[in-house]
Amino acid sequence: MNEEDKIIPSGLFKGKKIEFAPTAGVDMFWEVAEDFMERIFNLPPGEYLITDESSLWDFTGLDDMEISDVYERIQEVYDLDVSDIQSGNLLEIFMLIHRRENGAL
């Protein structure tokens, strides 16, 4: 995508640029990410977009899940309490899951 393609041509945001947040961190943990998104939100690969800045909050409301339901599901599936990660950042959660699965926690 060239620079000109990123500019919105019309409407309320005319002239503004579209920029996606980086995905380098999430890409490092893609196996964890795919497993997590499927097991927690029932979203198969290719049915979502996540970046290094994505959070649990971006996916609450799916299937009527509230944030407390998401925390509970993560606890059940991964035996991990992530309620203290106030931002709900998915990359932070993926790193914790990776560490737990590799015996670093």
Question: What would you say this structure looks like, in words?
Answer:
- The protein is mostly helical and 105 residues long.
- The protein has one domain (21-101).
- It contains four helices and no strands.
- It has helices at 24-28, 30-41, 67-78, 90-101.
- It is globular and about 50 Å long.
- The mean pLDDT is 90.
Order of helices and strands: HHHH
Q: Report the count of strand segments.
A: 0
Give the number of domains.
Answer: 1
Radius of gyration: 16 Å
Low-confidence stretches: none
Chain-averaged pLDDT: 90
Outline type:
globular
Largest sheet: none
Q: What's the SSE blueprint?
A:
Elements: H1 24-28, H2 30-41, H3 67-78, H4 90-101
Question: Which key features would you list for this structure?
Answer:
105 residues, mainly alpha
Could you write a compact summary of the structure shown?
The protein is an all-alpha fold and 105 residues long.
